[in-house]
User: Fold this.
Amino acid sequence: MDKLLAKLANSPKLLGSIHECEVQATEVLKHYITNFPEFTDHSIDHSKSVLRYVEFVLGENLNQLNVDEAYILIMAGFLHDIGMSPTNRMKEQILAGEKFKKYGKSFEEYLREFHHEISYEYISTHWENLKIVNPIYAEAIALVGMGHRVVNLFDFANYNPEFPVKSGNEYVCLPYLAGVLRLADELDITNDRTPDLLYGGYFPTNKISQKEWDKHKANYFVNFGQNTIKITSACYNKDLYFALLKQYGKIEDVIKYLQKLILAIPFRDRSLKVDFYRLEKDVKVHGFIPKEIGFTFDIQNTIDTFVGRNIYNSSFVAIRECLQNAIDSCRFKANKETINYQPLIKVVLQDGTLTISDNGLGMDDFIVEHYFAKLAKSYYREERVSNKYEAIGQFGIGVFSYFMLCNYFDVESKQEDKQTIKFRVTKDAGSYFHFYDSANRNSSGTDITFHLTDNLDYEFLIEKVREYIRYVEIPIHLMYKDDLSVVEKKEMNISIPKMLSHVDRYHSGELAALHAVEFAYSDSEVDGKVAILFQKDGDGVFLPFDNYEVLKTYQSSKVEVSQKGIFVKNFDNRAMDNCIGVLNLLKKNDIKLGRSGFNDHDFLFRILERFYVPILNMVFDNWKLLDAKRKWELSRELMGHVFTDSPVRPYIREFYDRLYYRVYRNEQYEYLTISEVLALGEFALVKSNSGFDRPRQNIIVELDPIARNLKLPLVFDRWAPPMKLLYNLCQFERFDITVRSTSRHLFFCVNSNQNVEEYKIIDSNRMECFAFDAPYVCGFTNISIERPFNTEHRILKYYFHNLNLIKSNPKINRLYDKLFYEIGQFIFSTHAYPGEKDPKQEIQYLQNLLQKINDSSGTDFSLKKSDFPIWIQSNFD
Assistant:
């Protein structure tokens, strides 16, 4: 770095700062090995090597630097990797920070990826200890040092081309210095950074570090010629060869980036440049032929795939995607602006074209090249952006939907203090963007002009924009000829006729008579309004209703879900019938490609529960003055017609004191809340005219004999939904459940005073297993599952005791799966469809399956008469 130091010959203060900083940096950088024990050299030796490459990269252009730029470049060269050696306090702050927790990888990997940002923080906060002259120089050094990695150097608001560090007419060109340092850092790749002694005796052991060391060992020389940088290397395996090519490709990208950056920098009185445009690779290979053949993808076919209706269900989603981008740009600008910024979006339809304009941030060449033009890469997903703003877009493919409206479109965009760019994009993947040499836009923002392949109806356009853009705070002006329509943020309103418009018009009277018990709610995650529909009697009591009986449809639930103001889908609410509503999710959730829905609906159920609880409490308040029997009647209607057959969720606990069941004890009926039922301690679940009794015989269950036999209170109903809900609730609470028998029936018996860690399940068929008080292998209850298995039966005991061994043998595992499935089917068919199959043949089939298990595993199982319920035992005679 002698040439750079020579620039400072007449600046003893700056020279002294450099020498003192070198001493401090040498000590600090020694500690990189604590965090990266197997990393290539990142000590002060690497820093000095980078500065030597800085001088090579600059060549004669070094003479164009002023004293301050030389000082800043040397100091940034010393300190650009100091983030790999954070102080203990900085490390504690990183480990405790949300960014690291969300990153989800090791501290070492975190430092690899973000050490340039940590370097900026280190320099900015420890500048005095690093012997930097003052905080203004420290800011410049920190920015240039951070710029050696993926920072956007085209962002001249942060990387000021005329950064003042002192009074006078000389400035520091931060983007130029950072670009030069970035290239020099990439070029420090030769094998003097990976000594053979260390490599063979100590390092490295992990794959990432080993690949880095191997690449450095393979590179012998970096030479600088006429406009060309040449790298000489040798390698002995194809994986290393292609790793080297990838490394060289990265260097080529940095060279191109630096040249584009220099062209974009608005120099005033001088011309800074770099004379190298090409990279030459001289790679000598041994032991293989370096053919660059492997899997690739057809770009045009990929575009056609992303354009087609296999992702998007309508060509009008192109309008939605374009408006989303405009909204994101405006919102991001509003998030950054401190002045009174008024965002505005315009949609202008003319004969043959549609133009969508915004006054957001706009784009420059860097954003166009590195984000707009790259499939599946989104500017808003970059860490430095996503930490400040959460965008609507997620995938970076929305622009491909534009071709559903056109074969080509024009883009005109401008960022503040930068030149306007205008270019045309065609559907032909082999065609580069066509950049125009003139443009009209003079304020920041973007215009997208679609050259339409088909005519577009203006009224239909307005309808579609209103359909997609629902809860966006930015006004959207739609214009066609002399007409102006403004789409503004919708109110959160619920209309029963509109939301259930599919109901046949012959039932419009019943629809109009329904009453919506609704609740509006807003927090940091959601803004919305939800209602559950009821009929009303003459006294104003809310009555749950059967949707098919009243409306002749099973589709009586519809929740319109938007995210960040943009409509996503109508959610089929499987957890609650007769439920309608509108939701706007304020935070980003994982959405399907094409925005046709969400990948995980569970979070929607959790959000809807915030509405269910207050709505249902309003319903129960409406029933407050009714007697217990009437509350039970309405409760069972609610459980049967509104609560659906879905897993019990925690919010149900809110209603343990408000939902009623009928209980038979002491030879009489009582009407108890769920809390009172659970307080009984032990009880049996009894449902008549179902799976307890042989169908088609219409046997009425006599409760007295059952109660005397079981010596338990009986929770009793003739309707499956309430009984199934209570059974599921008992499982949700992990109560101890057993199966007990009488001479004719099997019953679930619950002990709410005892809990179990988990219930045993035969995974392959999702068959639940409980302890029976009878020797049966399997039974039939029909409250929740049709065929519970007996964990106390000898076959089941053996199965669960040896489960890992059984699962490790695919053949035996399949035999057990088949056996349990066929036993369950036999129990069900013999009970539900007596006489349709020959029971003796079925029993023989089961015995044959069991014999195959015996032959394979050395067991000696057989099925006896006593292994089956009484109604089957006669088939063994």
